[in-house]
Amino acid sequence: MATPFHPLRPCPPPVPIPARSGHEVAASASPTISSPQFKVKILHPVENVDLRLLLLENISQEAVAAFRAQGFHVDHRTKAMTEEELIATLPEYHAVGIRSKTKITARVIQAAAKLLVIGCFCIGTNQVDLSAAAQAGIPVFNSPFSNSRSVAELVMGELVALSRQLFERAHELRHGVWNKQSKGCWEVRGKTLGIVGYGHIGSQLSVLAEAFGIRVIFYDVLNIMPLGSARQVDSLSTLLSDADFVTLHVPELPETINMISQPQLALMKKGSYLINNSRGKVVDIPALIDALQSKHLAGAAVDVFPSEPGSNGAPFDDQLNSWATALRNTPNVILTPHIGGSTEEAQRLIGEEVAQSLTRYLDYGSTIGAVNFPEVDLRAMAQERGDYIRVCHVHRNQPGVLKQVNDALSPYNVEKQYSESKGEVAYVMADIADVSIEEVAMLRERISGTPANILTRFLA
Ligand SMILES: NC(=O)c1ccc[n+]([C@@H]2O[C@H](COP(=O)([O-])OP(=O)(O)OC[C@H]3O[C@@H](n4cnc5c(N)ncnc54)[C@H](O)[C@@H]3O)[C@@H](O)[C@H]2O)c1
């Protein structure tokens, strides 16, 4: 299985995308990696040269421009589509880009006979039937980390706002009350920030906090190389008892649900602060309310909740979460509607990242970053080798398939080959030399005729 990407571990550099042949690259499109020594061979599907993409839910114009610069036909719609609309529309398209409102069900996937790839231009992928997509040979890509910096910056703002009681003073003055005071207000300089979860967000935050003169400690289940002067501690208890501010940046897992409850809050220093921008269930909120009301904690910022309203304007009340009124009435608590990652920059990055993933898959076969699919990639081919063909074969994960594929490839020189499986689906990519376009039809017939075949594509 592929090792999960971690921001502080080395990872292979992404292969930049050269433009499809016959198309000029726009200035904003990915650079080519051609150099005097190595010119990259530009690939595109042997069939389906005129790939059609449907982008729904007003996906960013940066993504539209990136696709058009690569020569794809793009239809852009501002709204989501219903299941019936998708069933009627998607059969025309090779790729679809959605956000969270469009549901790609098994019925939609079954109807979309030409569909090769799905791009979720957002963080989550719950709106797609991932298993049905994988079994139809369709990888699904998203952009889970494009908003890390936005979250880290919000935490920096919250550190200062909490330690200066900013929201209390601003609220009073809005209501006509002048209340200048310094008691209980602190600089963040020289204080200790405890970061729980030193991943994409936690590590970004570490750098920003040190620039403010804050001492950073962190706790993570993995041993991670600290950035700057940050220091990893060996237990959550050590972090809780040492930090003036505790901020949570872990995923929601069975072991992180209620990881901050009454015993952990009791370990925190009197007068310290808790910030949760991770997932709503990581903090036991009634226990947090008790710790705030007893003045054990001096304040908290909460951006994520166990139950969140489904749409803007909806009430945030006790029907949704039984403790909502108590939390809203607790002083020096900053409550925000899950906006940690909501910035225009994050949206733009999401557009660019998902557009690149779709293009890499359609033109180069790479599934690196796919959420439902075996992750496979091959290094770029050299341009002067005009007789290379790349075979991309998705099949059911069962014994004997590679032997059948390699029997079909055996008359040729297989320069590179890589295969990987995930659950019931496996994917093999191979670059073969000295094969003419005319021989591709015969190869296609042999490989796509194998019993476990799901999808066979050729790129040249
Ligand atoms: N508020 C928002 O709008 C918003 C936006 C983006 C992400 N998030 C959430 O922020 C969280 C962190 O995101 P990220 O991108 O940094 O994730 P990440 O996967 O890059 O990092 C998570 C880190 O937590 C560590 N971890 C896992 N279990 C742990 C445990 N039990 N104790 C200590 N450390 C543990 C992991 O090893 C990893 O280093 C996620 O829950 C994500 O859903 C919220």
Mean pLDDT comes to 90
- Which ranges are low-confidence, i.e. pLDDT below 50, for 5 or more consecutive residues? 1-5, 9-33
What is the total domain count?
2
Derived structural class: alpha/beta
Name of the top-level CATH class of the largest domain:
Alpha Beta
| CATH fold naming of the largest domain | Rossmann fold
State the separation between the terminal residues, measured CA to CA: 28 Å
Percent in helix: 25-40%
Descriptive report:
- This protein has 2 domains: 158 residues, Rossmann fold; 188 residues, Rossmann fold, CATH 3.40.50.
- The chain is built from 14 helices and 16 strands.
- The chain is elongated, with a radius of gyration of 26 Å.
- Strand 11, helix 11 and strand 12 form a beta-alpha-beta unit.
- The longest helix is centred in the C-terminal third of the chain and has 21 residues.
- The strands form 3 sheets. A 7-stranded parallel β-sheet has the order 8-7-6-9-10-11-12, with helices on both faces. Strands 2-1-3-4-5 form a 5-stranded parallel β-sheet. Strands 14-15-13-16 form a 4-stranded antiparallel β-sheet, with helices on one face.
- By secondary structure, the protein is α/β, with parallel strands linked by helices.
- The structure holds nicotinamide-adenine-dinucleotide.
- The site of nicotinamide-adenine-dinucleotide (NAD) has 30 residues, from helix 5 and helix 7.
